[in-house]
Amino acid sequence: MHAPIGDRDMCVGEAVKIREVGPRDGFQNEPEVIPSELKVELIDALARTGLRRLEVTSFVRPDVIPQLADAATVLERITVPPQVAVSVLIPNERGLDAALELRERLAGAGEARSARAAFDEVNVFMSASETHNRENVNRSLAESLAGLEAVLARARAAGLRAEAVISTSFGCPYEGHVAPERVLEIAAALVRAGAQEVGFGDTTGMANPRQVRDFFAAARAALGEQVELTAHFHNTRGQGLANVLAALEAGVRSFESSFGELGGCPVPAGTTGNIASEDLVSMLHEMGLETGIDLPALIACARRAQEILGRPLGSHTLIAGPVEWQEAAA
Question: Could you list the active site residues?
């Protein structure tokens, strides 16, 4: 019988899912453009750490985010094991057109990784805050929602799994408090449009543990058991892992993170990266929860990213290493 860990619903040995978003969320926020061959090297290495979910790129306009202009090249060249689900971020129908065209071309030519399609999942996104949404994608909330409903319908029709990510779910740097009711109304609309998973983003690191615990309890009640709830925390104010614990206590078992603590939000200035994947995995393993991830291998990926970028990264575990018993067990 499993022993409880601080909460009757969180047991030793329980599985927690992690989607690594560094190759997309991290790389797009770097000032320089990382060469495609180095991206491919890092993605292939991450795919062999035991991670089962990888967000690798986005089909955005290259003049807007030149750091991801090589989306097609990256997807053509990566060699990801078949058990790893590859996702791409889709901003609008034009991006979906490009993604589906590439997927069809690679599958038809037999060039896709391990004879599979180039990617398995699409992620769409919008903000819960009107001001942040306009600053980020230059659209109103109503315009974004209408566009994403069309994207989700087409993606599902193409046989793709779909996640919808809602930015500023826990607060907006422009508007301040964001009402949970508004966030959950948007989430419900995206689920009706076809999203099987909803990720709630603490885009600029404004969440606190009490807020997170209450929010996810409300989200589960509002969206039902069939929708996968995912938490996406940033570490801007150092509360990222505390918020993970609060989400775990509320029943969340799916998280997004970025190796090396890469990433952040392009608007406004001053925001820092996502929680580091290796910090998250280290904490979960110390708590007796299972991720299936080889922590030393994940740390090696973050160390390689640090070498490529030529600057120190914010991950604590990258600096300190795993705790001794974890290292010995590995």
Answer: 265
